[in-house]
Structure formats: structure tokens, C-alpha cells
Amino acid sequence: MRIPIRDVTPNTVYAEIIGWVHEVRDLGGLTFFLIRDRTGIIQVTVSKKKAASSVIEAARDISRESVVRVAGGVRAIDKAPGGREISPDEIEVISEAGSPLPLDVVEKVPAEMDTRIDARFMDVRKPRVSAIFFVRNAAMHAISDFLFTRGFINITTPKIVAAATEGGTELFPIAYFEKEAFLNQSPQLYKQMMMAAGFEKVFEIGPIFRAEEHNTTRHLNEATSIDIEVSFADHNDVMEILEEIIAAVYRNVADTCGEPLAHLGIDPDVPKTPFPRITYAEALEIANRRVEEDIRFGDDLGTAAEKAIGDEMGEHYFITDWPTAIKPYYAMPYEHDPEISKAFDLMHPRMELASGAQRVHQHNLLVRQIRSKGLSPESFEFYLKPFRYGMPPHAGWGLGAERLVMTMLDLGNIREAVLFPRDRHRITP
Ligand code: AMO
To answer: Which residue range or ranges hold the Aminoacyl-transfer RNA synthetases class-II family profile domain (predicted)?
Structure first.
């Protein structure tokens, strides 16, 4: 019976494994194979003097990256990976790999990002690359666990929609019978509507589509958003949930991803909570002090400003109290100063990870705010209706899964954190 390679120890007597041929070294009388599955790597040594002729025959033409089944006695050997090797009495090629390979899994030759993504299935065979997705898996597991434990209800909302969520123009139109439709850029309106439905605490982890034209190392055209919405809560309540969830993600990765982290050569510190909070006005002051620009109240914080503030803060932090003018219509203005809203961004020193707010729950104010952004309330009727029939106060946020993984693992390009990235130039594989 096949066992995972990780479970073969120096004390194992006999093992049957199935995996991919990672490396072949032929030293004349001895042939060494490294066989890999998702749990690890093991050495298989064929001695031409000792092995059965059927084994020597099978071993002769085995190409790298073929899938093979190997069964044989195990012995402890210091120099081999994991301190053990198999001397096979059976080798079977289950699925042969052609050559040349589209990519070098052993990474003697580093490949360009484009070449890697073109052969992503093979790229992800590299232990250093699969490690990213094992970490991403642990991060997503921690997030669902955290939210389920706290009574959040998991929802799924439509990705084919009739109107923009954020009011921007970054939408992908799609052909939908005789109607105009778009791919949704955020579950924002739907998660808010579920507050009117009385669900109280909801979350959704799903795709968001943004028709951003620029190709950058931190934008995707299809990203994964982790969204929550909570009734009877304000911006401070959901900021607390957000910092706790980030810490829980880092803790779970530290606790369960020892091997992937070792492959990546990284050991991320669990960030301390609570995260520092600075207001937008304070962030401006830091940016203007550290960069040669004159950023005015009401300007967006550009990349240079974000970097300057991140350098000064040096850890995760929140920027709160944003100008109402540059946040979406659904952000709640402060009663004492409506120029400022109860909106926040969660920042990693390198970039924004999440944004959120306490929302406007009063119908009339919401209509005014939609108009003030130059949008038409008529096109939001399906969204506005619940606000006329008992909408509780509520707050929420959206957190980018890829940016979370990218910053945690110090990856240079967001494409590293997604299996099949979608960008300006790529819709395959
Ligand atoms: P926002 O537009 O700031 O907010 O998006 C939230 C988070 O999603 C991630 N993200 C992206 N990641 C990669 N590529 C992109 N093109 C991209 N766009 C967004 C980021 C970002 O911080 N409705 C609000 C959330 C809310 O208020 O609940 C929203 O969508 O990490």
C-alpha cells in the first residue's frame, strides 16, 4: 500500500511510494533517483550488481518528472534527504514525462514569471512554489475557522451584476443575453443587504473582478476578497476583528507550516495586536515630512506616500478617519464633522491589505451620498430598497487574500500568490 513519502523514516522496514522523478544521477554501477510527492523527497538507489533485472530494466529509461511507483526495503543512510533511502525491488513507470520539460523543476535554471505561469502545473511542482500555496491554504483555513467560531454565516453572492459597486469605472462588461451586465468588483452591496435580512454577521471569500488597466506587481484583474459585514457594530468593532484575524492567520501558519516556511526560507513574526492606528491627517503629515511631495488633505495616498508611511510605521497599522470625498458613498460620515468618515484601511508596511468602514444605514443620507458621488440612485434601487424597511447599523471590511499572502511571505510579485493569475495580458492557463 502506498504511503506518503514523509512517513518513510530511517526506521521503516519496507515502503511503497508513488511520486514524480525529481532528479536522476547515473554513476555507472549505481543510479540515484530522487522521488517527490507533496509531502517530501526520498532517494531511491538502484545498484546494477544487486538489483533484479526487471528493476534495472525499468530504471534505465526513466525520465525526470515521470510518475513512478517504487517498492522496496528502506535503510538509514546519513547523506540522503531525510536520512533514508529505498533499495527497490519493484519500479513501475505509471505515467511518462516527455522531454524537454517546459520548466526545470529542480531550478538549476531560474525561469521568467511568464514561462513559469505558462507551465504553472509544473512550476507548482517546485517545493518552493507549492509551499506558497500550502501557506495560503493554512491562511484561508485560519480565516474560516476564526469566523465560523465567532458565529459568522458564510454566504455566496452573485458575480454577474447589473451595476457597479464602488461607483468606479473599473468594470468588465460581459455579454448577458440582451442585457448589459458586468463581473462584480466587490460583494459590498449584497453583504450589506444581508444585514437587512437579519443575518447579523456574514462572510464571503470569493473572486472580485477589477478592470485595472495598469500591470503592476500588486494588482490582479481577478483577485480573491475576504469580506465580512457585521450588524450593530461600528468601524472600531470591525477593525478589532480584522487585526485579530491577521494575527490568527500568522499564528496558524507558524504552527502548521514549518516545512513550507523552511522551503521559502522565511519565518514571519506574528504581528502584535492591537495594531497602531493613525488618522489620515497624521498619515499625510508623515508622508509630507518624508517625501518631496505636497500631498493635500483630500488627495489619495500614492505609492510613494504609502511607502514612506510604511517605513515609518514598520508594522501593520490602520489609517482611519478618511476624507468622505475620497471614500465610497457607503462610508459613514462622522456626525460632528461630515467631511471625515468612519472609514479605514489596514496597511502592511509595503501596501494596503484591506479597507472597510462603518456604513451609512439611513436611507436618505445614503441617497444623498450616492448623488454627491455623481451616481444615480435609480441604478441602485435593488440596494436602496432594504434601507427603507429596517436596516440595522452595520460595519465591515474587505481583505485581499493575495496581498495577505504576498506580504506575509515577502513575495516580490502578487502573481506568486495566485495559481492562475489574470492580468492585462493573460487569460490562459
Ligand atoms: P477595496 O476596493 O479597497 O475595498 O478592496 C479591498 C481589498 O481587496 C484587495 N484588492 C485587490 N487585490 C489585488 N488586485 C486588485 N486589483 C485588488 N483590488 C482590491 C486589496 C484591497 O485592500 N467594498 C470594499 C471593502 C469594504 O468596505 O468592505 C472594497 O472592495 O487588498
So the answer is: 133-429
Determine the distance separating the centroid of ligand 1 and the alpha carbon of 401, expressed in angstroms: 10
Catalytic residue among 348, 403, 415, 416: 403
Does the active-site annotation cover 350? no
CATH dotted code for 5-95 = 2.40.50.140
**Nearest one of 323, 348, 324 to 399, comparing CA atoms:** 348
355 as an active site residue: the answer is yes
pLDDT tens-digit readout, 164-211: 777 666 899 999 999 989 999 999 999 999 999 999 999 999 999 999
pTM of the model: 0.97
Cβ pair 298, 321 in contact under 8 A: no
**Domains in the chain: boundaries:** 5-95, 122-276+315-417
Q: Is 348 in the pocket of ligand 1 (CB under 6 A)?
A: no
Categorize the per-residue pLDDT at 273 as very low, low, confident or very high, splitting at 50, 70 and 90: very high
Chain segment 250-265, per-residue pLDDT in tens? 999 999 999 999 999 9
